[in-house]
Amino acid sequence: MITENAEQYYRIPDWGAGFFHGGKAGHLWLRPTKDPLIKLDLYDLVEKVQNQGHFTPLKFHFPQMLQYSISKLAKSFSRAAKEFNYSGTYTPIYPIKANPFAPVVEAVLAAGSPHGIGLEAGSISELAAIMSVAKKETPLVCNGYKDETYMRLILTAANQLDRVYLVIEKFSELLIFASIVETTKPAKLPFLGIRARLHTHGTGKWKESGGDFAKFGLTASEIVEACDFLEKHGLLNRLTMLHAHIGSQVTHSRKVKAMVEETGMIYAEMIRMEVPIKIVDLGGGLGVDYDGSRSSGEFSINYTVTEYANNLIFHMKSVCDQQEVPDPELFTESGRAITAYHSMLIVDVMEKHSLSHSMSVDKSIEEEDKVLVDLVETYQLMNARNLVEYFHDAVHMKEQLHTLFSIGVLNLKQKAIGEQIFWNIVQKAIELAPRMDQRPEELEMLDSLMASKYVTNFSTFRSVPDADSIGQIFPIAPIHRLGEVPVESAIIADITCDSDGKIDRFADISATRSTLKFHRLKNEPYYLGIFLTGAYQDAMANSHNLFGTPDTFFIEVTGDNTFEITHHVPKDTIADMLIRNGYHPQLFGEKWGRDADATEILNGSTYLHRIPTAGPEQGTRPVSISIHIDQLDCPRCRSDIRAFLSDLPMVSEFKITENHLHLTIASSELIPHLESLLKEAGFSVETESQEGN
Fold first, then answer.
1. How much is the pTM?
2. Calpha distance 397→391 (Å, rounded)
3. Rg, Å, the chain Cα set
4. Residue 401 belongs to what domain range?
5. Which residue, 432, 442, 514, 618, shows the most beta carbons closer than 10 Å to its own?
6. CA 347 to CA 343: how far, in whole Å?
7. Are residues 523 and 553 in the same domain?
8. H or E element at residue 690
């Protein structure tokens, strides 16, 4: 039920974190620095980019949002240190696994330079990538499992950069490191860190990253043994970092507190063992409020960046004071929090698939077709009082319909008519169910059952792979028509040849929902934004069905709806995808036989060329009508009828002026049904005019 405007319905103020807001002409606007004078109309941006020959899907990155996120993080720690008299410094570290795309890493380095930002590698490939972009003064943390080759590259990096930290994830890595040092006797060694396997574990999807059975880290006994080993080999003076991590997207602040206290105690004990620890790296975990609920749900967080910084500083300070040890320098590896907001995907809805076509239910029915006659009577007689009984009857009749077709009693046309009557019964049940005092369990899923599929020109596997793999929720909203009431319950289906290529989990204030209301499609583009896609989606993307990366733009917003494209990464062509998967495009051209056509196809997009958006359902003609209702001078009544109409599938658009409703419905045959529903809801109605569209 929608009783508020579309901006509130999509909860843009909640998940938008001040970056997004509705604006002129019902368009969605972006303020990448939260400066009200620096803003951009996203619909206008898409139109201008498409006028340059680049079509949806479109990926946009906004480096100014990276700068804001890094600055917010650094300033929060600076304020917390001042408030709690913390003497240690703070360094933000960006783990490039969050988004290893070179332009993103370079933008992070540029944005984080004033705050001394560092980088983190979790593999030899990531280390090689970092070495190609890092500056001499860039702090570098090397995590992940390591073999001799990875170790040797870390030693090479230590000769190029001032602060390189080799973090020991398992005891055997010490043996490899000591052997290399003994045989090569390098002039400069990296600093060493030890990752502690904490008893504390996180919350949410990644809670198993911490705890006693975590994949990484040394136990308490292994830490003691490692310190003894390093001292024996004359390397203890290089051990300057203690590392800990309890998982990405920690949803509850109490877990942050527990992690800091446990890590702080290990640090204090290592200081007492005369280990020269100077830095405590508290890893990742700073979450993102994807669903806007500000809760401890798995895709939200119940704390802010400021509260996170206060938590870390306060509890580390408390442990250090209690144990009488110096305040260490703090690192955090907050890749998700740094990158999530800065990127979005804009997609175009191509068409709608729907089970219900709002056909008249009494056409082409012969009296001897008893099951069809019974279905028609069920549709006509069903009301809020007999809804459950009649709905059960309809379900039974649908099974009977299938049986009669299977044995040849009904032909295909009769089966088609019967199925359509049944789906119209389901649609009517959806309209009647909200007026029941107690809604039965079997009716709870009707809205999901009848939801339309908005077929959208993109691949979930390529652009938002976590939506399928872990059920990640991403905020989704149209970037225009926010001044209209969305009335079509739908899920999003992509264009891959895979039934899992869909989004059917959406954010809600208290839980996830299986459908979201969108606007009815017109014969014009309908653009949806999928937001907060900057973390992990580029890295986890795959080429299922050989769909490639979309056109990608890095945008700097320069003023009031002015922008500059600072970098463009062209989309993958069909030829690109063939080569990447071991094919030879020239063979396609030879077999095709027409060089010009073959070249055009090979150089073309892996996505669909835009076709007209689905308009009226086949066989129906939408009509606009004006209805006089006496009660509309009452504000509460206006609110009630707005909520009532937004739940009616037959209504595509409506507006209220004085004592009149102006609305568009699927066909003129539905006018009596609409009038009946309004009267049952307690409204006095009189249809004054109608006009076919």
1. 0.85
2. 10
3. 30
4. 370-446
5. 432
6. 13
7. yes
8. strand 685-692
> pLDDT tens digits for 290-349?
998 888 888 889 999 999 999 999 999 999 999 999 999 999 999 999 999 999 999 999
Contacts of 15 (CB under 8 A, 6+ apart): 289, 290, 291, 292, 475, 507, 531, 532
Question: How would residue 616 be classed by pLDDT, with cut points 50, 70 and 90?
Answer: very low
Residue 279 in contact with residue 241, Cβ under 8 Å? yes
Could you give the CA distance from residue 154 to residue 238 in angstroms, rounded to a whole number?
14
176 sits in which H/E element: helix 172-184
pLDDT for 693 equals 53
Same domain, 396 and 493: no
Residue 615 lies in a domain: no
> Nearest 10 degrees: CA dihedral of 234, 235, 238, 239?
-120
The contacts of residue 669 (CB under 8 Å, 6+ apart) are 358, 360
Chain position carrying tokens 């997004």: 20
C-beta separation of 135 from 109 below 8 A: yes
Residue 160 lies in a domain: yes
DSSP string for 522-556: -SS--EEEE----SSHHHH---GGG--PPEEEEEE
On whether the CB atoms of residues 429 and 443 are closer than 8 A, the answer is: yes
Which token pair is 22?
């509705």
pLDDT at residue 590 in the model: 72
CA–CA separation, 347 vs 46, rounded Å? 10
- Spell out the residues 6+ positions from residue 219 whose beta carbon is closer than 8 angstroms to its own: 197
Q: Are residues 438 and 455 in the same domain?
A: no
Q: How confident is the model at residue 480 (pLDDT cuts 50, 70, 90)?
A: very high
Query: Which band of pLDDT confidence, cut at 50, 70 and 90, is reported for residue 207?
Result: very low
Q: If 0-12 CB within 10 Å is exposed, 13-18 middle and 19+ buried, where does residue 597 land?
A: exposed
Q: What is the pLDDT of residue 387?
A: 87
For the ranges 38-42, 159-163, 381-385, 545-549, which has the lowest average pLDDT? 381-385
Q: What is the pLDDT of residues 647-689, one digit of tens each?
A: 565 676 777 777 777 777 766 767 776 777 777 666 777 776 6
- Give the separation between CA 295 and CA 30, rounded to whole angstroms: 25
Instruction: From 390, 453, 433, 410, select the one nearest 648 (Cα to Cα).
Output: 433
Q: Are 671 and 665 a contacting pair, CB within 8 Å? A: yes
424 and 468 in a single domain? The answer is no
User: Per the domain annotation, does 22 fall within a domain?
Assistant: no
Location of structure tokens 């409204």:
683
Kindly report the three-state secondary structure assignment for every residue of 503-515. Answer: ECCECCCCCCECC
Residues 383 and 484 in one domain: no
**Dist. CA 529–CA 61, nearest whole Å:** 13
Cβ-in-10-Å burial (0-12, 13-18, 19+) of 134 comes to buried
> Are 652 and 667 found together in one domain?
yes
CATH number at residue 654: 3.30.70.100
- Within this chain, do residues 379 and 481 fall inside the same structural domain, yes or no? no
Which residue carries 């280390």 as its tokens? 127
Crossing angle of helices 412-432 and 387-406, rounded to 10°: 170
Residues 408 and 497 in one domain: no
Could you tell me whether strands 279-281 and 164-168 are parallel, antiparallel, or unpaired per DSSP bridges?
A: unpaired
Which residues does residue 686 pair with via DSSP β-bridges, in sequence order? 628
Strands (E), 81-126: 90-95, 118-121
Query: Would you give the DSSP letter of residue 662?
Result: E
Give the whole-angstrom CA distance, residue 418 versus residue 402.
9
Listed residues 446, 463, 484: the one ending a domain: 446
3-state class (DSSP) for residue 566: strand
